[in-house]
């Protein structure tokens, strides 16, 4: 039998291309001949990459580095040493994960009508990597959201770290993490996109409360962060009230990923409470790790039907039917939390008894169309134009088609390359609610997540989290100003479970049921 070392190098490379990438290091140690066959063999590493991951279409990549980073990511995520992961490998995980997501292959056809994306080999690989709960917690649970704050005295607050038994002994407090590392962990958690629930319900409730405290705290809604999920970096856009001269310049529009994470947790909890997580149009977007969180992951239900000139020139894919979920508090709870009786600056704000029953929610269908496309302004990212849109919106539980909200807004790139949505909701011509959101994963990715608030930036509120995702493209020659009755009611009846009671496994607590508070809810309902 001929020894492998006697075969031509090309044939040996072909054989080694079927080896698991993590085993190449062992092949290197076999003998000097195989070492030189593997070492610096860019063709071999290119072939290995394409056997396991999507073709990125870039022939200039450093294939050796890409495969080595893939192997490192797999090894880190398989580790049970949570401390080492947190201290040494968070940057590696972040850079490798975001690169793989940016290079995911988009498909041309949906697998099912309820799923607007199709998993690629890159996302299959990432899901396998993030299947280890210890590594998942060490990587995704290190933001300040996991530092539960409670008042200990009149002058200080202390974080409450989860006991080791709560987190299977894998994760300690993130108090020692730098602000940058916390932002990275929160961003990875947002891209992962599925609720992480490996710990006990008592600790999960603490995380839920921490998220609600953040997203409903009016002190976090300022001109400096544009009242959206941005870092508090400076004045608002040049020309607005309080910054008419623009002497300090605009903020950098860096996304506040910890706020984005809190928004997503608040939405997850509310969807779970209302059983919406069981519905295909919600479950496939919010219940699957790395679900469509890469550029151009959206797949039209019927390709080739966007016929209008504006639609064809729109890089963001705005025109079509979108599903939106808006969360809000009973206004009495919102006011009591934001404006407590005491007003002494040295006293800590009392923490309300927030839990998964605290929020109300509304599921809304939006029908949008493009009105104009303009060049980006000096405060925008310059790679893509600004797309302006209008449309209508209606609550999914509306039993008539007699009234609807009017929508208008714009989509643009930030200077950091994120996709930034702004929308205003009006009723009978009067603007009422404004929303600032970021599209997770980039252009035509599957989720847009952000905040809503009073269109006049009222410091007394209300405010809250919201998210929307696309169901289908605009159908040519249809009425953009009205809903099709048959289509609207078919969507409501076949896709959305309107049961609003708690799902199996929730404690029945009538006093905490948002649906029992309908009278007071109407004061803060954003739609």
From TrEMBL:
<dbReference type="InterPro" id="IPR036047">
    <property type="entry name" value="F-box-like_dom_sf"/>
</dbReference>
<feature type="compositionally biased region" description="Acidic residues">
    <location>
        <begin position="505"/>
        <end position="527"/>
    </location>
</feature>
<dbReference type="Pfam" id="PF12937">
    <property type="entry name" value="F-box-like"/>
</dbReference>
<protein>
    <recommendedName>
        <fullName>F-box domain-containing protein</fullName>
    </recommendedName>
</protein>
<feature type="region of interest" description="Disordered">
    <location>
        <begin position="499"/>
        <end position="527"/>
    </location>
</feature>
<feature type="domain" description="F-box">
    <location>
        <begin position="1"/>
        <end position="48"/>
    </location>
</feature>
<dbReference type="InterPro" id="IPR001810">
    <property type="entry name" value="F-box_dom"/>
</dbReference>
<feature type="region of interest" description="Disordered">
    <location>
        <begin position="152"/>
        <end position="173"/>
    </location>
</feature>
């Amino acid at each position: 039998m001929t020894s492998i070392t006697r075969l031509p190098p090309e044939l040996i490379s072909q054989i080694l291309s079927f080896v698991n990438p993590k085993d190449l290091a062992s092949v290197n140690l076999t003998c000097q001949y195989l070492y030189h066959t593997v070492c610096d063999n860019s063709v071999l590493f290119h072939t290995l990459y394409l056997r396991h991951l999507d073709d990125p279409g870039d022939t200039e990549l450093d294939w050796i580095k890409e495969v080595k980073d893939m192997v490192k990511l797999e090894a880190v995520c398989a580790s049970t040493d949570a401390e080492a992961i947190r201290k040494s490998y968070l940057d590696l995980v972040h850079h490798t994960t975001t690169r793989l997501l940016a290079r995911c292959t988009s498909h041309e056809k949906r697998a099912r009508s309820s799923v607007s994306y199709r998993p690629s080999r890159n996302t299959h690989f990432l899901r396998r990597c993030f299947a280890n709960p210890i590594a998942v917690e060490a990587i995704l649970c290190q933001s300040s959201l996991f530092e539960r704050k409670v008042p200990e005295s009149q002058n200080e607050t202390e974080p409450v770290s989860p006991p080791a038994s709560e987190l299977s002994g894998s994760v300690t407090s993130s108090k020692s993490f730098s602000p940058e590392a916390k932002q990275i962990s929160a961003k990875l958690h947002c891209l992962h996109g599925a609720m992480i629930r490996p710990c006990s319900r008592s600790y999960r409730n603490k995380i839920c409360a921490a998220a609600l405290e953040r997203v409903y705290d009016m002190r976090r809604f300022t001109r400096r962060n544009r009242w959206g999920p941005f870092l508090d970096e400076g004045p608002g856009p040049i020309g607005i009230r309080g910054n008419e001269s623009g002497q300090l310049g605009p903020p950098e529009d860096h996304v506040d990923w910890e706020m984005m994470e809190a928004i997503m947790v608040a939405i997850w909890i509310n969807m779970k409470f209302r059983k919406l997580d069981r519905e295909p149009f919600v479950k496939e977007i919010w219940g699957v790790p790395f679900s469509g969180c890469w550029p151009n992951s959206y797949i039209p239900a019927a390709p080739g039907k966007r016929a209008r000139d504006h639609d064809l020139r729109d890089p963001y894919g705005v025109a079509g039917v979108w599903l939106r979920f808006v969360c809000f508090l009973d206004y009495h709870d919102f006011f009591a939390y934001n404006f407590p009786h005491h007003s002494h600056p040295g006293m800590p704000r009392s923490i309300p008894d927030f839990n998964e029953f605290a929020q109300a929610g509304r599921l809304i269908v939006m029908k949008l169309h493009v009105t104009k496309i303009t060049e980006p302004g000096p405060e925008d990212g310059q790679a893509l134009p600004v797309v302006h849109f209008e449309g209508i919106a209606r609550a999914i539980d509306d039993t008539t088609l007699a009234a609807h909200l009017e929508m208008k807004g714009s989509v643009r790139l930030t200077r950091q390359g994120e996709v930034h949505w702004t929308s205003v909701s009006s009723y009978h011509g009067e603007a009422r609610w404004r929303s600032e959101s970021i599209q997770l994963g980039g252009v035509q990715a599957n989720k847009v997540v952000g905040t809503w608030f009073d269109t006049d930036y009222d410091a007394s509120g209300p405010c809250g989290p919201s998210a929307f995702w696309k169901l289908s493209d605009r159908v040519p020659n249809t009425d953009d100003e009205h809903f099709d009755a048959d289509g609207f009611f078919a969507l409501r009846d076949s896709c959305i479970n309107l049961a609003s009671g708690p799902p199996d496994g929730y404690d029945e607590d009538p006093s905490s049921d948002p649906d029992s508070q309908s009278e007071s809810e109407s004061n803060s309902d954003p739609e």
